[in-house]
Amino acid sequence: MSIAILGTGAIGNYVRANTGGKITTILTRPERVSELQVETGLTCVGSAKDLPEGTNLLIDCSGHVGLAEHGPTALARGIDVLTVSVGALADEDIAKSLTEAAAKGGGALLLASGAIGALDALRGARVGELQSVTYTGRKPPAGWRGSPAEEVVDLSKPLGTAVAHFTGSARQAALQYPKNANVAAAVALAGIGLDDTTVALIADPDAKGNTHEITAQGAFGELTFTITGKGMPENPRSSALAAMSVVAAVRERSATIRFA
Ligand SMILES: NC(=O)C1=CN([C@@H]2O[C@H](COP(=O)(O)OP(=O)(O)OC[C@H]3O[C@@H](n4cnc5c(N)ncnc54)[C@H](OP(=O)(O)O)[C@@H]3O)[C@@H](O)[C@H]2O)C=CC1
Ligand SMILES: O=C([O-])CC(=O)C(=O)O
Q1: Does 235 belong to an annotated binding site?
Q2: pLDDT at 80 over 90
Q3: In this protein, which residues make up the domain named Aspartate dehydrogenase (predicted)?
Q4: pTM
């Protein structure tokens, strides 16, 4: 298996450090190719067109823009793309370009479970009638820096109480919070879709970590799921589990017994 990675931030570096040398190529911004090559000793390229022949997996840990820029080219070359940037699919143009490239080239877009769980249960539950799914994302105030939460609440001052700075659909959440609501999109895509999944995003001074909660009702019964994830030291906005879920997906790719 020949694997490339896009993104050398908190998630990308964790993934590279925990996949036992399986990642041999870094796809980066063109201006960073030489510097990263010296720093890592790996093959570095500035475009998905230049990924070495034989690459069969590109791991995207870069965010929506990186997936939109490079995903279609990789998929059109028949390279599978495993992504954490799930919320990018809320943009209909990006979703169309990824879908068409995958259909043309035969690569598959693989969605990492990321910072959340219970997606397997939602996928099963939607086979029966799934009536409602809600997702609530709760992070300490610092976890919302650089997001539209700053237009609603002053994150530089101590918050006395929890503030819900967004309520709406998973599609709106994913489009407005590209660095914070990939989980909302994943819940929606596993369940009743981006427009019918109800989302609330909360800055909470008492939050013990990045808390994600799902409730669902349907023919299967009822589901409540809560996880409080630790933020990554390099980027408290991103939960460590998001990076771990990518490592798990890479490890399981070559396993003969694995979850379907
Ligand atoms: N599915 C899930 O559960 C989760 C998904 N995410 C998603 O993962 C993304 C990455 O998270 P994290 O690692 O913490 O973020 P970081 O900001 O730490 O790292 C992002 C990395 O991606 C690179 N990058 C961004 N855009 C491009 C581009 N257009 N071309 C090439 N490289 C690019 C950055 O490079 P540079 O420094 O040059 O900008 C940087 O190396 C988040 O933005 C979010 O969308 C995050 C958490 C959970
Ligand atoms: O890492 C998290 O806790 C969730 C996150 O940022 C996202 O969904 O984009």
Answers
A1: no
A2: yes
A3: 163-247
A4: 0.97
Tell me the C-alpha distance between 119 and 65, whole Å.
24
Burial of 166 (0-12, 13-18, 19+ CB in 10 A): buried
Enumerate the active-site residues. 212
> Which tokens in the block code for residue 194?
């981006």
Task: Report pLDDT for 1.
Answer: 82
Q: Where do the structural domains in the chain lie, given as residue ranges? A: 2-111+243-254, 119-229
CA of 54 to the centre of ligand 1 (A): 25
Predicted interface score ipTM higher than 0.95:
yes
Residues contacting residue 32 through CB under 8 Å, at least 6 positions apart: 44, 46
Whether ligand 2 lies within 6 angstroms of the CB of 238 is answered as yes
What's the Rg (C-alpha) of the chain?
18
Find the mean pLDDT for residues 75-80. 98
**Is the beta carbon of 63 within 6 A of some atom in ligand 1?**
yes
182 is in an annotated binding site: yes
Domain 2-111+243-254: CATH superfamily is NAD(P)-binding Rossmann-like Domain (3.40.50.720)
Does CATH place domain 119-229 in 2.130.10.10? no
**Distance (Å, whole) CA 117 – CA 130:** 18
